[in-house]
């Protein structure tokens, strides 16, 4: 195969996101086996499943003699991209031990750690990170340290996480995330005061990206609620008011600001943020809570009838919302939601990098927005999607195998019909006799050449002429001693001389032509013998070939059937799992609404009670 | 359709989620059972994928050997080593006057070729002997001009399997793409 430009593969998959960069920066590699290039063609299109199949097939058929070692690495990379992390790890553990460039080895472990962490394989992720020996390039090293900190926190090793994060001294956005995680580790380690300082510092950073703004909001929210819980409402307001008015955390912050005022008996002030929440989406728990908070403040401000109206509205709204959630649960249990994911995010690409691009329309997705974004759900959905791909793949093969069997039967029948005809014609073609005739021709030619027998190569016409001349020569009348006979004898002699001269002149050329024709016949005979051997061989092998195909089809067919059943079962299991976490989430939302409803009813009863007896209202 | 927004990028993924200080102080892995169930399903899926991949490998080879036996098989590959002077749009392939492939490239496919992928354009059964191959390419040449060019070659098919590489390369001296058809036994 010709020289082909491509960049080193290992880096190609390790730097999937930065692949174009690597493409430009790295020296070219030579593709020597076209089947290897064919795998790359699929790989570069992120069609990992067919790429793996073609690579496995090419290896089994020994089509990659020049890419043996690379093929193994490529396979590891493809497994990694396809989400076969356990397979990928087994290959890397074997290959990366000694022979590969250390920087490549470290990156490989890093990406494996990332996948494992995302899939919840915390211990494996930790081990993979431990395998990294040197500093990773660019921001990858910061990401590695953050990942390690997260793993330490997940494993409850707070002191180690704090030690790792505390020394982070740069001014990048990574440092801000490190600081946030440091705060988390400290809170969980019981160092609440120190954590508060860190969150306060983070809550005042000057964000230069949307992500940093969100992080700043998150820190302020956490700090504000920490103060609220500690009974320090005045302190709580400061960080809560730093949260942006329109962001993912704004509702919760507005609610908190209201509570901070309410804690200080400033119910009029509290109503301002709570009323702001009133107009927002009821899907948000903070908005739901505000529907109770508003009438609570109103009652405190002695607007009893308004408070009663708000409680009644809240009960009504909670009831409607509860109904909607119940129908969502029913829809979920019917499997419609998951199927809509398969339909709306179709396309045959599979693998670890896949994520939901767009949510399908429908009420379910509104309630599950946060859940759908979680790793747990996303990873489960990836599996579900991959299983669906496998199911369709196996269905296609099952149909194809039926076609293969028909094809084989047809071929066998055609062979059986043709075989007697071929055998008959082979019998009639006596090649041995032809060879004998050719050999006798050779012998005759030898004699003709040796004797310079020009007449032997004469044409039929010349031969007839020669015969006539000879006959004339022996005519008795020509022997008479008269002038006419003498003249006739001279003419006959002249004719014979001319003919002989002609024959002698053409002898060499005729000899060459005859030899050429005999040689060509010999070659044709050799070809015929060769074809006959092939036909004989094919007659011997064909039944074996048929039997071989028959046996292969026979063994693969039940495997397809069995795997289809198992894939179907796994899909059911995955669906039930995904549905159960979604339903649990919805049940929690229902539970919260029911609690709020009880609280509203209780408060309403208290108001009615108050109207009757006069007194204070409990929240 | 609701546009979906995940906590974007790596940074988002590295934020430990908190919605309240209670969550901030929560011990991790609150739902250990769900995590265990996820892992168990995940491991099953991994092993199923493995088995289906191995089965696909065997079926892939069976199909190829059945439809294109080694003694008559000819595989036509297309490779591209261009960037500057040619952007590939389509390829048309004729064998002995009969059109066997007419392929239009998507951007993704063209990009995969530029990055070093090699496409198996066509697989054919051919008898022993001589055959004529005509390949016609269209695309964008230098200065974004429409480009169309053909190449013809007579192939000699022997007894075993054979592959033919149709290579398109940039020719710096003439500032244009060059087509080259090579045969491999």
Overview of the structural elements:
- The complex is a heterodimer of chains A (619) and B (185).
- With 619 residues, chain A is an all-alpha fold.
- In chain A, 78% of the residues lie in helices and 0% in strands.
- Chain A starts with 8 loop residues before the first helix and ends in a 6-residue tail after the last helix.
- With 185 residues, chain B is an alpha+beta fold.
- Helices cover 30% and strands 42% of the residues of chain B.
- Chain B contains 4 helices and 9 strands.
- In chain B, the strands form 2 sheets. A 4-stranded mixed sheet of chain B has the order 5-2-8-9, with no helix packed on it.
- In chain B, strand 6 and strand 7 form a beta hairpin.
- The relative contact order of chain B is 0.15.
- The N terminus of chain B is likely disordered.
- At the A-B interface, helix 3, helix 4, helix 6, helix 9 and helix 11 of A face strand 1, helix 1, helix 2, helix 3 and strand 2 of B.
Gyration radius of chain B (Cα, Å) is 26 Å
CA-atom Rg of chain A in angstroms: 46 Å
Mean pLDDT, all residues of chain A: 84
Strand tally of chain B is 9
Secondary-structure content class of chain A: mainly alpha
Distance between the termini of chain A: 80 Å
The biggest beta sheet of chain A is recorded as: none
What's the multimeric state? Answer: heterodimer
What is the distance, rounded to the nearest whole angstrom, between the alpha carbons of the first and last residues of chain B? 54 Å
| Estimated structural class of chain B | alpha+beta
Kindly report the spatial arrangement of strands forming the biggest sheet of chain B. 5-2-8-9
**Percentage beta strand of chain A:** under 5%
Question: What is the N-to-C order of secondary-structure elements of chain B (H for helix, E for strand)?
Answer: EHHHEEEHEEEEE
Number of helices of chain B: 4
Secondary-structure element order of chain A, N to C: HHHHHHHHHHHHHHHHHHHEHHHHHH
Query: What's the count of strands of chain A?
Result: 1
Helical residues, percent of chain A: over 70%
> Helix segment count of chain A?
25
Which two chains form the greatest contact, residue counts included? A-B, 110 and 79 residues
Shape of chain B: flat
Which spans of chain B have pLDDT < 50 for at least 5 consecutive residues? 1-30
């Amino acid at each position: 195969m010709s020289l082909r430009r491509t960049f080193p593969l290992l880096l190609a998959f390790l730097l999937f996101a930065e692949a174009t960069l690597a493409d430009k920066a790295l020296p070219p590699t030579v593709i020597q086996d076209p089947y290897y290039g064919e795998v790359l063609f699929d790989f570069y299109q992120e069609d990992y499943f067919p790429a793996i199949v073609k690579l496995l097939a090419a290896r089994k058929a020994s089509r990659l003699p020049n890419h043996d070692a690379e093929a193994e690495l490529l396979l590891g990379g493809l497994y990694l991209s396809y989400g076969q992390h356990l397979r990928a790890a087994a290959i890397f553990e074997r290959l990366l031990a000694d022979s590969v460039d250390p920087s490549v080895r470290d990156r490989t472990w890093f990406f494996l750690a990332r996948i494992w962490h995302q899939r919840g394989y915390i211990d494996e992720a930790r081990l993979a990170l431990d395998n990294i020996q040197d500093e990773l390039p660019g921001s990858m090293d910061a990401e590695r340290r953050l990942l390690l900190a997260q793993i330490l926190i997940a494993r409850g090793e707070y002191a180690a996480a704090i030690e790792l994060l505390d020394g982070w001294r740069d001014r990048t956005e990574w440092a801000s995330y490190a600081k946030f995680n440091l705060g988390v580790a400290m809170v969980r380690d019981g160092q609440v005061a120190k954590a508060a300082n860190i969150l306060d510092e983070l809550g005042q950073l000057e964000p230069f990206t949307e992500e940093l703004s969100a992080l700043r909001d998150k820190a302020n929210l956490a700090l504000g609620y920490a103060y609220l819980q500690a009974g320090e409402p005045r302190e709580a307001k400061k960080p809560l008011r730093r949260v942006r008015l329109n962001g993912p955390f704004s509702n919760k912050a507005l609610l908190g600001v209201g509570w901070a005022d309410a804690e200080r008996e400033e119910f009029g002030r509290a109503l301002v943020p709570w009323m702001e929440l009133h107009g927002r989406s009821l899907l948000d728990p903070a908005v739901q809570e505000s529907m109770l908070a508003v009438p609570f403040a109103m009652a405190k401000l002695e607007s009893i009838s308004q408070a009663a109206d708000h409680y009644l509205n809240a009960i009504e709204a909670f009831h409607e919302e509860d109904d909607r959630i119940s129908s969502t649960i029913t829809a979920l249990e019917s499997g419609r939601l998951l199927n809509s994911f398969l339909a709306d995010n179709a396309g045959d690409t599979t693998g670890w990098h896949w994520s939901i691009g767009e949510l399908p329309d429908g009420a379910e997705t509104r309630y599950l927005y946060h859940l759908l974004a979680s790793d747990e759900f996303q990873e489960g959905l990836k599996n579900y999607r991959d299983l669906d791909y496998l199911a369709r793949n196996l269905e296609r093969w099952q149909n194809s195998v039926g076609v293969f069997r028909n094809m084989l039967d047809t071929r066998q029948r055609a062979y059986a019909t043709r075989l007697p005809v071929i055998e008959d014609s082979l019998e009639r073609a006596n090649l041995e006799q032809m060879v004998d005739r050719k050999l006798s021709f050779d012998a005759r030619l030898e004699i003709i050449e040796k004797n310079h027998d020009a007449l032997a190569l004469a044409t039929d016409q010349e031969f007839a002429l020669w015969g006539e001349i000879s006959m004339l020569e022996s005519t008795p009348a020509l022997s008479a001693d008269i002038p006419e006979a003498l003249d006739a004898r001279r003419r006959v002699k002249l004719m014979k001389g001319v003919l002989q001269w002609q024959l002698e002149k053409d002898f060499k050329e005729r000899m060459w032509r005859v030899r050429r024709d005999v040689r060509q016949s010999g070659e044709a005979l050799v070809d015929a013998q060769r074809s006959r051997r092939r036909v004989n061989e094919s007659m011997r092998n064909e039944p074996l070939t048929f039997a071989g195909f028959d046996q292969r089809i026979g063994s693969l067919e039940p495997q397809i059937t069995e795997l289809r059943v198992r894939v179907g079962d796994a899909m059911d299991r995955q669906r039930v799992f995904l549905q159960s976490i979604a339903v649990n989430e919805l049940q929690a939302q229902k539970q919260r609404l029911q609690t709020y409803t009880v609280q509203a009813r209780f408060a309403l009863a208290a108001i009615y009670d108050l109207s009757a007896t006069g007194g204070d209202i409990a929240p | 359709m609701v546009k979906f927004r995940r906590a974007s990028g790596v940074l988002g993924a590295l934020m430990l989620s908190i919605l309240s200080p209670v969550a901030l102080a929560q011990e991790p892995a609150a739902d250990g059972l769900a995590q265990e169930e996820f892992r168990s399903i995940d491991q099953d899926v991994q092993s199923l994928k493995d088995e289906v991949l191995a089965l696909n490998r065997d079926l892939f080879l069976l199909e190829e050997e059945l439809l294109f036996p080694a003694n008559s098989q000819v595989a036509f590959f297309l490779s591209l080593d261009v960037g500057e002077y040619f952007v590939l749009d389509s390829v048309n392939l004729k064998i002995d006057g009969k059109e066997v492939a007419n392929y239009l490239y998507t951007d993704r496919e063209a990009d995969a070729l530029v990055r070093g992928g090699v496409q198996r354009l066509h697989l054919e059964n051919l008898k022993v002997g001589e055959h004529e191959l005509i390949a016609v390419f269209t695309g964008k040449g230098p200065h974004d001009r429409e480009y169309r060019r053909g190449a013809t070659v007579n192939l000699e098919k022997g007894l075993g399997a054979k592959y033919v590489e149709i290579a398109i390369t940039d020719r710096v001296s003439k500032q244009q793409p060059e087509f080259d058809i090579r045969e491999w036994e």
